[in-house]
Write a structure and sequence with these properties.
2 copies of one chain form a homodimer.
Chain A lengths: L15 H4 L5 H4 L1 H4 L5 E2 L12 H19 L9 H12 L11 E5 H13 L5 E6 L3 H9 L3 E8 L2 E2 L1 H14 L3 E6 L13 H13 L4 E4 L23 E6 L10 E5 L2 H15 L4 H13 L2 H26 L5 E2 L7 E5 L10 H6 L2 E2 L1 E2 L12 E5 L5 H24 L33
Parallel strand pairs in A: 1-12, 3-4, 3-6, 6-7, 7-8
Antiparallel strand pairs in A: 2-9, 4-5, 8-9, 10-11, 11-14, 13-14
Helix pairs in contact in A: 4-11, 6-7, 6-10, 12-14
């Protein structure tokens, strides 16, 4: 069963977009992280077993027994009207109080929402601005659309407005067609940082000044540890901001229910696009979410999730503080699922991966989160799924792996061990270790 | 709430593909067919209430209560392995005995399967061959991909092999890149006809001779009234035929579970494309289908569905035979959901629609099933959803509508009533009433 068949008789008839598709760094890890002896800090799986499974099971069973004529039947392409109403209630928690159910399109996870928005707006060669690093699943969508991604740096307060403005000016000078800014303002995946309050207004002001469309992707907004949800970008601008939401982190990812909130003219295009893609989202899963919001204590459940993730975040940060060798740095998330870690001495997280797998710990190498091949000295650590004790053990193993790499580095200083990029390789040009544009900014 | 906002501030920044998107003839009818006084022969909704809803409800409830850690969690992009095994069992009923679960990709309905195949193969301007008429949802996918559709005529035995060969020769002469043939061999939507046994072999031979890829879309194959399922095209050629399947008509469309069976090299591309589009299909709905196939009498249920649809088909054909004015012709399906009807005297089904709505009967105008604007004298009648008595009443109303149009035609023979195209309009060039390429072939 060849993974990359050499003799594909159809090789010459694929579409142009197909040639650029490649396996993500996360999927490439799948066979590793599913081994029971491996502590996985790689995946972003929510802790769904913290849900009241019996209650949710009865609820969904009754939806089929009692309302099978609706829940097992085709529905509207735009999504169930009752669910769209409840989605507006959810968004109100982040200050979006003017949204109408008619502006909401229900999608198969917010991934489909992003794909639809990208298909509706982007021709091949168009430019999308995105944080560096950015969500790996978004980069997959943009690549499939043959769009070009230009990364904009972040720091601990999220996307840097001045850098956004500079990127816009440069694109304008280049004659690039910038279709939108894609941003994850809360508890960023993978960076773990949150866009500060003053910067939110600054970004919206820039969008207004440069006539820039903003795609606000917000799966984690309600999962903050320390304060109330921040006001969404969409709450500040209802014409230039298209908002993507999801129930994957607040309820269940296995139902694949997300949504897009967009101005009516755009919403109309999105509905046509989703009808061509899936006809309509699954009815059963939509009814399940609407009924869950109607009958279950969903706000309390989010609080419970948040407490659980906070404990895991704490275990992660405490272990990192105690165990990581000097020179290693990382972000300190106050919500969401992720820590973004920078290796010391130019270590390369991708090249280090075999040693980590051998030590039974998994992470996602940083290069997966850049469209331009940078990010090699970074990695993403997810604390959402493993128990605190597993997290501590995982960080312990990771610390030993990094120390072993550093030892190797200092012992064979002038030898190319394969783990370092162009570090003292005899005869090679002394190439500086160049990180992503954010390399000196996204540290703790 | 403008449906077609004139002042869309983003109008100048949509992708090229977006400008071609338009509401389908079926969705345009939505507000009409949902009115209780209207007999709808328009929609293609399966009779899901014939399912054992209590048993299915308990089954799905238990899946969540007992297996929430799997059914509510993210799954594999390719789809649940157990479900893919059971899908191979289902396909064996149509003679596909060499399929491996590794060649199957689970999709959000077979609509997503067709979208993925089209995205993987088609660049803008590529040519797709498709029956005339063809499935309206497929035409939406091809339009979104900016592909050009060339229709190939059918008759009562389905796609005409000689016409396919002629189309291929003409495309070759034109320098067109033909990416594939899209065909619905069983109980065609909307034509209601089935590809005969000798023609199946002829189509596969042509595909081999012309190096043509074939997309076999087969949602209705198990819903035959008179004989065992026919052998699929894919059973005759496992390299040139990509097969699309669906549980929407044999179980439930509201779960949105379909699949693609493709050679491994193509399957790999399809998985990358679906990961970029939806990450993974919903877990709960996949587990529900797999459990249904494992524990419920699904073959007996299909038999029950078939008996029910046969009764409705009979009610349709008997009423048409008894009531339709002379000159009206229609196909006689021996399975599936649809009758394809041709109006007499060049009546235009789209222009006749307001009168039909006034008479409280709905159908889908034939132009929705052609990419080239032809099909005006045709309509699709669906008998899958209404009860036999409703069907008889609907056909009665439709017959009266057609008779009234014919009366109008004969009374105001020389006047342009708006219902006829270029029929005796004074001063206009006597333009012949040109039907689709199949106009003289697809009749009963």
């Amino acid at each position: 069963m060849p993974r990359h068949p050499r003799l594909d008789p159809l090789a010459d008839r694929y579409a142009a977009r197909t040639h650029g598709m490649k396996t993500s760094e996360i999927r490439a890890l799948f066979s590793v992280v599913s081994r029971p002896e491996v502590v996985s800090l790689a995946g972003g799986m929510p802790a769904v077993t913290a849900l009241p499974l019996d209650a949710v099971g009865s609820m969904i069973g009754e939806l089929v027994s009692g309302m099978g004529a609706q829940t097992l039947q085709y529905g509207s392409g735009q999504g169930d009207p009752r669910l769209r109403e409840r989605i507006c209630d959810v968004m109100a928690l982040e200050g979006i109080t003017d949204a109408s159910p008619s502006e909401v399109v229900v999608t198969v996870g917010s991934q489909q929402g992003l794909d639809l928005v990208t298909r509706v707006f982007c021709d091949p060669g168009d430019v999308i601005l995105a944080e560096g690093p950015s969500y790996v699943g978004a980069l997959g969508v943009f690549q499939a659309a043959e769009a070009r991604v230009r990364h904009v740096p972040m720091d601990d307060d999220g996307l840097i407005p001045e850098a956004l403005e500079q990127a816009l000016l440069e694109c304008r000078a280049n004659g690039d067609r910038v279709k939108f800014l894609y941003t994850v303002p809360n508890f960023h995946n993978p960076a773990g940082v949150t866009l500060s309050e003053p910067r939110r207004q600054a970004i919206v002001d820039i969008a207004d000044r440069y006539d820039l469309l903003v795609i606000e992707d917000n799966p984690y907004g309600l999962l903050g540890f320390d304060h109330e949800p921040m006001r969404a970008l969409r709450a500040r601008d209802n014409q230039r901001v298209i908002y993507l939401g999801s129930f994957s982190k607040t309820f269940s990812p296995g139902l694949r229910v997300g949504w897009v909130l967009a101005p009516l003219a755009v919403r109309e295009k999105l509905v046509l696009a989703t009808e061509a893609q899936v006809l309509c989202p699954p009815s059963l899963t939509q009814y399940a979410v609407a009924r869950y919001l109607d009958t279950q204590p969903w706000r309390e459940q989010i609080k419970l999730f948040t407490e659980l993730y906070r404990e895991r975040r704490d275990a992660t940060l405490e272990s990192l503080d105690a165990l990581m060798p000097p020179g290693t740095t990382w972000t300190r998330p106050d919500g969401g699922f992720y820590v973004w870690l920078k290796l010391p001495n130019g270590l390369d997280s991708k090249l280090m991966q075999p040693r980590a797998v051998g030590a039974h710990v998994a992470y996602v190498p940083g290069i997966g989160f850049y469209a331009d091949g940078s990010g090699r000295e970074y990695m993403r650590l997810s604390y959402c799924y493993p128990e605190p004790d597993q997290i501590r053990e995982g960080v312990r193993r990771l610390a030993r792996v990094i120390e072993a790499e550093l030892d190797l580095h200092s012992t064979f200083d002038a030898v190319d061990t394969g783990t370092f990029r162009a570090v003292g390789r005899p005869g090679a040009t002394a190439e500086p270790i160049v990180g992503p544009a954010t390399s000196d900014r996204i540290e703790d």
